[in-house]
Specification:
By secondary structure, the chain is an alpha/beta fold. It contains 18 helices and 13 strands. The strands form two sheets. The protein has a seven-stranded parallel β-sheet, with helices on both faces. Strands 10-9-8-11-12-13 form a six-stranded parallel β-sheet, sandwiched between helices. Strand 2, helix 2 and strand 3 form a beta-alpha-beta unit.
Length: about 375
Amino acid sequence: MKIAFITLMGAIPWGGSEELWYRTALYAKRQGHEVFCSVYRFDTIHPKIQNLIDNKIEVDFRQRFNSGGNLFYKTKIYLQNRITYLQDNYKKLLKFNPDVILISQGGTYDIITHNKDLREVLVNLNKPFFIVCHNNTENASVLNPELIELSKQIFKSAKKMFFVSEKNRNSAKRQLYDNLENSTIVKNPLNLNKFEIQTFNKEEIINFAIVGILNPNHKGQDILFEILSKQEWQERNWILNIYGNGAWEEYLKKLAIYFKIENKIFFRGHVSDIENLWQKNHILLMPSIGEGLPNTLLEAMICGRSAVVSDVGGNTEVIFENQTGFIAEAPTVYSFGKALKRAWENKDKWEQMGKNAHNFAIKFIDKEPDKTLLNLIIEKTL
């Protein structure tokens, strides 16, 4: 079978949402399928994209349309690219002529709001396609009545819609007033070498960890900074380790200085050794504004760590109050602050709660999500 994978990740070269299609593409190649991948072009080729190439998978690099400059300049660049999109962005895809297409998108409506060209290509190819949705907001702020109808039309045309959390799917059902009967849940792969509990850190100073892209509009790091700047937290014995990269790093460093907590905030950059990360840290903090079902949360749980999370995405499908972690009703300073305070008052339970989290997560995860997804694609295509 000829399978094309198209990722709509255009803001950064790589993210957690990329792992599922990437590993499924590699697995499909190993199973003898002909594989084609379409990704956005960045200044450098990410190592995992290079790995696809090294495995003899054809990778096509598309032009991104999010050029800088004023509105006139952006419009000019867009129109120039729009005229030649079939020649530049999708010529190789059309030549590949896949039997089936998998589209991976960060937000549930990315294909609707930003990718008219791709929708036209799907019409021209007239081949079965699948869509993976990794994130959704609690409201339909990106939609209007016209886009709602277009979303329903595109989603119903898909052979299958995949969501990574039940809450994200339920939000989409509400937003579109549709049951999305051709949808199901899939799970993401985890970046772990072993699925074992890591030794709990016995140091007196508490090591908080926040893991993920440095973007407060998504991960809510600024909310956490404000909470930790309050007098009650200034008097407590903790440090915050921040893992990840992103365009907002300089802003967050300046914000830490503004809140006078820069001596307790440590930017550790991207870390690939997740097991070692959790040997050093006591608990995961996730004041996220929106999520799918974050890999970082499940990885922490597998490693035997509890978490303080906001009630967004699939967080509360795996975190249960005072059992596997602590839940803030909303990603606000008030709500997350209360949840963090509850966690602090129950520090003596963290190690056991981490064991509870591990026991739950080990049953919850799919250790072969690439195999699961490929089988679903083949089953619905043949």
